[in-house]
Amino acid sequence: MGRIKTPGDVPAGWSVISMDTVDSTNTVAMELGEKDAPHGTVVLADRQTKGRGRLGREWVSPTGNIYMSILLRPTVTPADAALLTITAAVACVRALREATGLQVEIKWPNDLMVSGKKLGGILTEMKSRGPRVFFAVVGIGINLNSRAADFSPELSATATSLRVETGEKIPKTALISRILSEIRFWYDELTQGDRDRILDEWRRLSSTLGRDVRITSVNETFEGVAETLDKEGRLIVRLSSGIRKVVSAGDVAMVR
Amino acid sequence: MEIDDLKELISLLQDTDITELQLEKDGTKVKIRRQMLLPSLEVHPKGTTVIEKSTETDEETQRLITVTAPIVGTFYRSPSPDAPAFVDAGARVKKGQVICIIEAMKLMNEIESEAEGVVVRALVENGQPVEYGEPLFLIEPVS
Fold first, then answer.
1. A44 and A122, same domain (yes or no)
2. Which residues neighbour A151 within 8 Å (Cβ) at sequence distance 6 or greater?
3. Residue A216 maps to which CATH number?
4. Are A46 and A145 in contact (CB under 8 A)?
5. Do B46 and A77 lie within an 8 Å CB cutoff?
6. Which of A144, A237, B62, B80 has its CA 20 to 30 A from that of A27?
7. How many Å lie between the alpha carbon of B54 and the closest alpha carbon of chain A?
8. Same domain, A233 and A137
9. Min CA distance, B92 vs chain A (Å)?
10. Residue A111 shares a structural domain with residue A226
11. Of A56, A136, A233, the CB nearest to B105
12. Is residue A135 domain-shared with residue A246, that is, in the same domain?
C-alpha cells in the first residue's frame, strides 16, 4: 500500500494515495481529514472490507471496481458545501458517458444508473462547526469490471457494471483521471458560487425528473411525481392530492 | 488618533442607535460599524444564536447556547437507525464533539458542538426535516 502517484494522473495540487485493501476509503479519508492532510488528497483502494453506504449500510466492494474518496477542505459555508454529492454525481456521469458512450444517468440525488440498474453511488461526509466546514470527504463507488456472475442473484436484479454493459474490460487508471478532472472542474464551479450551473447540469443528466416515484424516508413512505430539483438540491414531489413534498433524504424508487 | 480615543468613541456609541460612524482627524480616517443588539435574539457571527434576554429574564436561559442547523436537510440524532443517540439531554459535551447529523442529498453533515457544556434540551425529533438556522440543541456552556 501507499504508493503516491505522480502528478499528471491527478488535478494540479491534488495527490493520490493508492492501497490494496482498506476497511473503507471514506473512513481512511475522514481520519486524514482529522490529521490535517491537505485539500485534494485522494484515497483509492482495490478492495474494501467495510464499504459504507448511507446510514451505516454496507456497500459490497470486491476487487476490480473503483473505490475512491476525496478529501476536500471547502472554503464555502456548509450550506454551499451541501451540494457536494450532487456536484460529484454530475462529474461522474459526465466522465462515465465520455469514457464509455453509455447513457449513464443520475437517480436522485446520487445514484449512477444505466439501463435502470445501479452502476455506482456517492456518499459525502462532512464535518462542520458553526459556519465553518472543517473538511468533507466525497466517497465514490463504481462497479467497473465486475462480471454478471460476480453479483449475487438479488443484487444482479438491481446492479450492473461498466463491463457487463459494454462487454469490455475498462481501463481503471484512465477512468479515474477523467473522473478526478471532472470533479475538480465542477468543484471549482461550486466554490465560485455557480450553483445554478451545477443544478442545471444535474437536471439534464437525471432520469428522475418527470417520473412517478416512491419515496421512503425514516418516518414515512409516499408516492408522487418527481417534479423538479429546488435550489438546495432537494427533490420536489407532487402527490396525487396536489400537495408538494420537499425531500432532502430518503430512498427513491421508480414506479409505473 | 490613539487607541484610547478609539475606545472612547466606541463606548460613546454604545448607548446610541448609531450603527456606522466615519471620522477624519489629523489625516487618519476611522470607520466604526457595529451590529445592533436585538433585545431577544442575537445572531452570533459564529452561526450560533445566543439567547440574550428572554421575556422571563430567566438567569438560566440567558447563558444557553443554541446550536442551529447550518444546512437544510433531515436531522438525525444517531449515526445509524439502530445506534444510540450522539447526545441526550443532560449529557456533557466537549467542544468539537459530534452531536448530530443533518443529511442533505446524500451528504451527511456531522455537526460539532461549538462549546463545552451540558445539553439542556434536544429541540428536534429524529428524522425530521430542518431549515437553515433552525434551533437544534440548547447547551449550557461551562467555562
1. yes
2. A159, A160
3. 2.30.30.100
4. no
5. no
6. A144
7. 22
8. no
9. 17
10. no
11. A233
12. no
Over 70: is that where the pLDDT of A213 sits? yes
> A185 and A81 in one domain?
yes
Residues A130, B103: C-beta atoms closer than 8 Å: no
Same domain, A234 and A147: no
pLDDT at position A152, please? Answer: 84
DSSP-H helix ranges across B35-97: 59-63
pTM: 0.81
Asked whether residue A188 falls in the same domain as residue A155, the answer is yes
CB pairs under 8 A between A and B: 112
Nearest to A131 among B46, B107, B110 (CB): B46
pLDDT tens digits for range A69-111: 999 999 999 999 999 999 999 999 999 999 999 999 999 999 9
Helix, strand, coil percentages (3-state) for chain B, rounded to 5, are 10, 40, 50
Cβ pair A79:B80 closer than 8 A: no
Domain ranges of chain B: 55-141
CATH, domain B55-141, list 3.40.1390.20, 3.30.420.40, 2.40.50.100, 3.30.1050.10 = 2.40.50.100
**Cβ-Cβ contacts under 8 Å, B48 against chain A:** 130
Give yes or no: residues A176 and A233 share one domain.
no
CATH number at residue A51: 3.30.930.10
Instruction: Write out the residue range of the structural domain in which residue A248 sits.
Output: 212-254
Q: Do B109 and A82 touch (CB under 8 A)?
A: yes
Question: How many domains, in total, are found in chain A?
Answer: 2
Task: List, for residues B90-131, the tens digit of each pLDDT value.
Answer: 999 999 999 999 999 999 999 999 999 999 999 999 999 999
* A77 → chain B, closest CA residue: B70
Question: Nearest Cβ partner of B74 from A78, A81, A249?
Answer: A249
- Considering CB atoms only, which of B71, B98, B128 is closest to A79? B71
Say yes or no for a CB contact (<8 Å) between A56 and B129. Answer: no
Residues in chain B closer than 8 A to A231 (CB atoms): none
Q: How confident is the model at residue B51 (pLDDT cuts 50, 70, 90)?
A: very low
Largest CA distance in chain B: 68
**pLDDT, tens digit, 9 for 90 and up, residues A155-198:** 888 999 999 999 999 899 999 999 999 999 999 999 999 999 99
